Amino acid sequence: MLWMEDQNLLGSEIRQDYRNGFYSIMTLGRSKRPKGLEEETIETMDISNCPFERANDSMTTDIMRYGGPWQIKVIQNKYPELSGNTPFGETVDKDGLLTHIGGYGYNEVVIESPVHTEIFEAFSPEKLIDWLNVIIDREETLYARPYIKYVQVFKNYGVIGGASLGHPHTQIIAWPVLIGLIKKELDISKSYRQTNGTCLYEKIYDIEKGRVLIDNNSFFAIAPFGSRITAESMIVPKRHVSYAGELSSVEKYDFISILKTVLLTNRKLYGNQAYNFTIHEIKGDPDFHMHLEIYPRLSTMAGIELGENVFVNTVIPEEYAEEFRNSLKNSD
Q: For the chain, where are the alpha helices, taking DSSP H only?
């Protein structure tokens, strides 16, 4: 147990709220992480203290470099939510209410470019393929480690999106347990297959036909019927794969092509807004269908979202889909 009698939190700990089943990571030190992005603009930018610059390589603990001099670099997260040094284990108190899970896991940061001002969605297709291959390489390594059940890849862009540094980067977290949204999605997918004999996500193109944003030979993007976030979108492979490492070279290109198009079109529609995206995937689970979800941060959560876990979306998905498709037509 990490929470000791003297009330010192050692490492990190995953706790389940016995009232509603939601999970939270309790961790120390992240309040001290960099906050330079809050003041940063192109005009006032000072990159001398950015730890992701090539000139500041000594400020980070490297895991791998791609290219020489490096074009993509993977480092250990200096302010990790989970740590490989934390003992893994789960305990429940005598009343069965307080669940403690050791915060064992791994946090890595993929620095996508040596150039501080580069924008992810403006990368060339070749650079995005390199990024995806580095992501898959790290996932393979992390999935091979003891106790790891799920590797999450996500990007936070902009202050509202939770990014603490403006330098382009992606984060990877390797989890010892399946909890939260990924667990709910897996349970629903298993239940749907048991009832209907097929994968739910292989039916989504037809289910969401009026909300399709764009498609190509291997992937399609939709504005989901039940979107929680304004201009939320989801990118789905047409072939059933559970994990990005299963994609062919052609599918990888189709994947980054649609991701690039969606992010650039959102930028055209809404300007330089903060956003998050996360890849939902579980290696080795045939019931799970990989997909990527994008959340533009056009509004903030308030009482309804925080109090009820019910989201307020002020732009219906059908309207967003129509605006998106019109924007693509006008770009032709």
A: 125-143, 180-196, 204-207, 249-270, 303-308, 317-331
pLDDT of residue 13: 80
* pLDDT for the residue numbered 250: 98
pLDDT at 310 exceeding the cut of 70 = yes
Q: Which helix (H) or strand (E) holds 219?
A: strand 219-222
Is residue 197 exposed (0-12), middle (13-18) or buried (19+ Cβ within 10 Å)?
exposed
DSSP state of 325: H
Angle at 155 between CA 150 and CA 159, to 5 degrees: 135
Strand partners, 190: none
Calpha distance 290→240 (Å, rounded): 8
User: What is the domain range of residue 31?
Assistant: 12-177
DSSP 63-110: EEEETTTTSEEEEE-SS-SSBTTSPP-EEE-TTS--EEEE-B-EEEEE
Please indicate, yes or no, if residue 211 is contained in any of the structural domains. yes
Task: Please report which helix (H) or strand (E) contains residue 152, including its range.
Answer: strand 150-157
Residues 6+ apart with CB under 8 A from 293: 232, 233, 234, 235, 277, 278, 280
CA atoms of 38 and 163, how far apart (whole Å): 9
Number of domains in the chain: 2
* Residue 96 burial (CB count, 10 A): 8
pTM: predicted TM-score of the whole model, two decimal places: 0.89
Query: Which residue do the tokens 């590797």 mark?
Result: 151
- CATH code for the domain of 26: 3.30.428.10
Q: How is 220-243 classified by DSSP, letter by letter?
A: EEE--TT-SSTT-EEEEESS--SS
Two structure tokens written together for 147: 């106790």
